Amino acid sequence: MPYLETGPGLRLFYTVTGPGSAPALVFSNSLGTTHRMWDAIASELSAEYRCVRYDTRGHGGSNHGPSPFEIADLADDLAALLDHLDLTRAHVAGLSLGGMIGQAFAARHPARLAGLTLMATTAYMPTREAWEERAGLVRRDGTQAILAATMQRWFTPGFRDAHRSATDAVASEFAAIDRDGYAACCEAIGRMDLRPLLPRVNAPTTVIAGREDPATPLAMAEALHSGIAGSRLVMLSPAAHLLAIEQAERVAAELRRDLARSYPQKSQI
């Protein structure tokens, strides 16, 4: 299995599909999921693009390493992965925490960014106290303590009823997430304020929101859209927080449109 050692005690799992010479598309997962959340979309796009998926610190096959850490550190993990894969530039697609990482990456490593797709995410998510409370609960009782409430936020009732096996698979992965890694990410989100960085995002950017998303509602997407010059805003429905799973076909279509802007000639990276 492919791993990248990015620092003392920190190991990231990643997987790559698609032609080695194709333009790169890197996926960054949400809090409480793994690279598997992108399975359907990566399968759809891997014929044309080099699709890179990885597990954020403390999730799936990646350990959490030293903590505390910040969203900026997670963005630097992404840059280290590009270095490891000899990728000069990439289009980055991130959902929720992954979108926060994408914003920080855009500001910290602008020359590495071909384009950006931000899904169900925000530049600022108060309150710090609420995130610290969630972190404390999960450290004590594990992610099982918030499993039911999380699944209600992540999928619309209609999708949960019609796609039980898919939502059960997500729930199983969530229940297995390392409690300390999840908590450390919660605390990083609580300390985060990326709003001052938004004017520095110069790559072609799309913001995608789910109409039924209670975690990062449309107002947060509109704020991102307003803060990032030249961005476009897409709203999907029915779609709650994990819209990349609930509306995988629509998201893949939007990504194709984004990638055409990022790589107009589909030139080799």
CATH superfamily: Alpha/Beta hydrolase fold, catalytic domain
Question: How many structural domains are formed by the residues?
Answer: 1
Show unreliable segments. Answer: none
Q: Under the CATH scheme, which class? A: Alpha Beta
* 3D shape: globular
- In the CATH hierarchy, the third-tier topology is known as Rossmann fold
Mean pLDDT across the residues is 96
CATH architecture: 3-Layer(aba) Sandwich
Question: What's the count of strands?
Answer: 8
Strand order of the largest sheet: 1-2-4-3-5-6-7-8
State Rg: 17 Å
- Proportion of residues in β-strands: 15-25%
Class from helix and strand fractions: alpha/beta
| Discrete helix count | 11
The helix content, as a percent range, equals 40-55%
Q: How does the major sheet shape up?
A: 8 strands, mixed
Order of helices and strands: EEEHEHEHEHHHHHEHEHH
> N-to-C terminal Cα separation, in Å?
24 Å
The gist of it:
The protein has 269 residues and is an alpha/beta fold. Helix content is 43%, strand content 17%.
